[in-house]
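Record type: monomer structure entry
Structure origin: computed from sequence
Chain ID: A
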Amino acid sequence: MFLSVPIFANAGIFSIGTIWTLAENDTTTFEVKSEPNSQTIQLLKAATNNDPNPAKGGGDIVVIDDKALLAASSVTGDAVSVYRPKSDQISVYEVREGDTLSQIAEMFHVTPNTIRWANDFDGSIHPGQTLVILPVTGVKHTIKTGGTVQDLADMYKADAREIALFNGISINARLEAGMEVVVPNGELHVEEPKKTTKKKSTGIASSGGVSTSGFFIHPLPGGIKTQGIHGYNGVDIGAPIGTSIRAAAGGQVIISRGGGGWNGGYGNYVVIKHNNGTQTLYAHMNGVSATQGSWVSQGDKIGTSGNTGKSTGPHLHFEVRGGKNPF
């Protein structure tokens, strides 16, 4: 005899004893069932997925600077993404015995090529060498059908030489499918509010950070602003070569680069660290008079305007890192 008793049977007139009495007088195999009710119905369970962050439907959306939506692909169908370091602060590092370039890059959350590009070298590092850690933002492009460095430069309105230097490749190199190439300061096609069709740069043009109201004075009196916020919260101020540049606020000169090097496109430039946690950067200078490690007061002359590095005419590129650029 086969006997099946429901696990969640209810107490009632049809009891266990009744079942045994029937069983003694009948050898027929039968099954006892009960209709589902509020006590016997199986409880609902939440859906489970082995992936702790499963797909939720729809396409991935990347938001740039909390305003613009980045399309899933470029106009050519090639995969693109925003390349951005974790911090916008510029650092200076002195190489110690046993250091490797990859270890230093990991320490500052940048790539080894970022450091090479910002310091104009392609060999090995050595103890005592001073490295500028210059965070860079841009576009990371995955090559699908080949092409040249100049093709990428044209696509993102960037500089071919800068792309080649940043990625450690020849400017004449043929790009192979599958390669990932970073385009420093490249511009992406992004979706803006319906009322405008303006393109937005991937550069950090942030007004966040500490308050700078009344903290900075104009670094180039008499100069004319030729380009608004772009890149790392910078503006361009046009003036004849040789015009005096003054410190926008007092602080310590942490970087003073002269000699006409590329220096990540900045050419001759100075960076001053201020006591409110911000940094100001003065680029494309003709002459540099501020000494690295020295302290300057607000209004002190730190150099003269010029046309060095990635520049198409005499001007000062002025950045504020860590706070709003008031100009």
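Annotation 1: Confidence is low (pLDDT under 50) at residues 5-32, 44-77, 190-205.
Annotation 2: The first strand starts at residue 3 and ends at 4.
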